[in-house]
Amino acid sequence: MKILDETGRSRPNGYLESIRKGTEGVRVFRGIYYGSGDKEAETARLKNEIDTADAIVVGAGAGLSTSAGFTYSGERFNRYFFDFAKKFGISDMYSGGFYPFPDAGTRWAWWARHIYFNRYIDAPKPVYNRLLEILKDKDYFVITTNVDHQFQRAGFDKNRLFYTQGDYGLFQSVRSSNRKTYDNEEWVMKAMEAQGFLRDENGVFCVPDDGRLLMRIPSELIPVCPDDGSAVTMNLRADDSFVEDDGWHEASANYAHFLRKHETGHVLYLELGVGSNTPVIIKFPFWAMTYDNPEAVYACLNYNESFAPKQIATQSICLDGDIGEVLDAHINNTERV
Length: 337
Description:
It is a single chain. Helix 1 (about 15-25) packs across helix 10, helix 1 (about 15-25) crosses helix 11 and helix 6 (about 105-120) packs across helix 9. About 40% of the residues lie in helices and about 20% in strands. The strands form 5 sheets. A 6-stranded parallel sheet has the order 6-5-4-12-13-15, sandwiched between helices. Strands 8-7-11 form a 3-stranded antiparallel sheet, covered by helices on one side. It has a two-stranded antiparallel sheet with strand order 1-2. It is built from 12 helices and 15 strands. The protein has helices at about 15-25, 40-50, 60-65, 75-90, 95, 105-120, 125-135, 150-155, 185-195, 245-260, 285-290, 325-335; strands spanning about 1-5, 10, 30-35, 55-60, 140-145, 160-165, 165-175, 180-185, 200, 205, 230-235, 265-270, 295-300, 310, 315-320. With about 325 residues, it is α/β, with parallel strands linked by helices.
């Protein structure tokens, strides 16, 4: 499947190709397989598959970032958004993104914090680093619905990454005719300073000791499109206004090429923390591609959502638990060998 991207170039679209495979393939699946129940045996089997696979396709969802410490509620939310919680009754970062703030200055103060603490700092736990350590010498590709840029922060090759749903680090114009994206790092840093956040010895913004923060940025700091002065919004897939820029299409084409190259052979489809909100992007395609290739293996690591269709049960590894703990177990076993 080839389409003309927004630059007028004809390139394969791995995003649409894989979704088509998944939606067509899922029709044959009936019944659910939850794994053998022997976690130690399943972990050992996963290690063997990682070590011996000809290629590894990683599908990463929100559960991977959660395992790495990027939680959207609880202590982390209360530390950075305590004032918004008190004034507006917001209970977590996710719901705050949909809150009808009273003015643009307040809305963009919220988003500056949301972007910074989920995009411009390293994850609290080294789960992404552990994953890179395991994959660095492998022929791998990563498709993810995450928008926090943590794969690249951990050192993954950007040519082996496909962020399907956008990037917290990018703005797009609200004008539908403008199909470009814009880096927001410089704006985020200014907006954080304007609210009263202070940098620590490592250059990371922290809440000041007195806890005094502003919940609104000055009007002159409200971001606008640098090309035409129009209002901007986040480059996050919410509807058909989402801008798939040249970088997005290049990554989609890279994904298509990788999948085509490894349609046969010993391929491991490694699904990490993918929930059921958008199964057509990663989960269904992984099931379908495993079903179509008798040599392929599907591995699902997730909390309380680790399962596979019965039709690929003998090709599946299902591990219910913390992703970081499973990856650590793999590394520790490797070091003992």
